[in-house]
Amino acid sequence: MPNLRDFTLEALEEYLSDQGQPPWRARQIFRWLARGAKNFEEMTDLPKALRRHLTQTADISLPRLTTQEKGADGTIKLALRLSDGALIETVIIPERDHYTLCLSSQVGCAMGCAFCLTAKMEFRRNLSPGEITGQIILAREILGEEASRLTNLVFMGMGEPLANYEALLTALRNILHPLGFGFSKRRVTVSTSGLVPQLLRLSQEIVVKLAISLHAPEEGLRSQLMPVNRTWPLKELLSVCRRLKLPRGWRITFEYLLLEGINDSRATAQKLAWILRGIPAKINLIPFNPAPGLPFRCPSEERILAFQAELLKAGYTTIIRKSKGRDISAACGQLYARVA
Ligand code: SF4
């Protein structure tokens, strides 16, 4: 049975037209799905016979919320069980005037970054488009009356989003569609470890904000930290970043995890500033969150500020991103769901 949450509006129109239904029926259903309808009976503007028929022939089930944990800073980590029993995590992050949802795109991750707990999980599978957008529906339910303040999405949870390209693209189309989830393209960020061909393709197929996990300004160190660099070296990644056609005024965010004694010296900051020249860039510095099983430490405040100062001096907007949800392991690189 197909899950209709995996369809774009166009695909849904085609599916229903094969059953003799007009395109506007698809639009009605598409809207209900984004609003979080749990069954066809809730879709009260559909004829009863069609509701009955769809109940027997199509699926609209969602991931199931298993647990939620709230951190001292208000961050909420949700564990969701998928239809095959796999678990994923999604994190609601409170900001000053809105919420951001950190979405997962895969069960586990095959990219093997040395500093990431998700990399320690076995990679199980890609999420379907409906499993990706289902995280938004469940987060909205948890937020209740505050759901309208969930305005920002970041694909920085479990998985490499661009390694699940087709599902990501379908999910993004539904996320941005005004009859779907209706998010602003300015408020949706896809983060990648640097899959060059998919990055190029994504920028040609849809407009959303892009974030690149860089973490090192030279090939050898980056290959040690991020095995993806052996396939798609920094040089090629940055060359593509220089060629991306971004909307006026947009910049690419470069994420840079600060690891004590490894990539946090002033000289490294200068090298980073140099390699990003010519790219409309802003830099997020993320002090490492120590976690059991990961052999890294967080640099001192002094070193972090000195690193930032070098980048500011070179003219880059550089933010030290305070990781939220540390106490509930919901911070960057700490999502790790056990398959029970
Ligand atoms: S940092 Fe991202 S891409 Fe790297 S292993 Fe972790 S989840 Fe995968």
UniProtKB/TrEMBL annotation:
One Gene Ontology term from the biological process aspect of the record: rRNA base methylation
One Pfam family matching this protein: Radical_SAM
Cofactor: [4Fe-4S] cluster
InterPro entries: Aldolase_TIM (IPR013785), Methyltransferase_A (IPR040072), RlmN_N (IPR048641), RNA_MTrfase_RlmN (IPR027492), rRNA_lsu_MTrfase_RlmN/Cfr (IPR004383), rSAM (IPR007197), rSAM_sf (IPR058240)
GO molecular function annotation: 4 iron, 4 sulfur cluster binding; metal ion binding; rRNA (adenine(2503)-C2-)-methyltransferase activity; rRNA binding; tRNA (adenine(37)-C2)-methyltransferase activity; tRNA binding
UniProt remark on cofactor binding: Binds 1 [4Fe-4S] cluster. The cluster is coordinated with 3 cysteines and an exchangeable S-adenosyl-L-methionine.
The keyword Iron belongs to this UniProt entry's keyword annotation: yes
Binding site for [4Fe-4S] cluster: C109, C113, C116
Coarse class of the protein's main subcellular location: cytoplasm
SUPFAM superfamilies: Radical SAM enzymes
Described function: Specifically methylates position 2 of adenine 2503 in 23S rRNA and position 2 of adenine 37 in tRNAs.
Protein name stated in the entry: Probable dual-specificity RNA methyltransferase RlmN
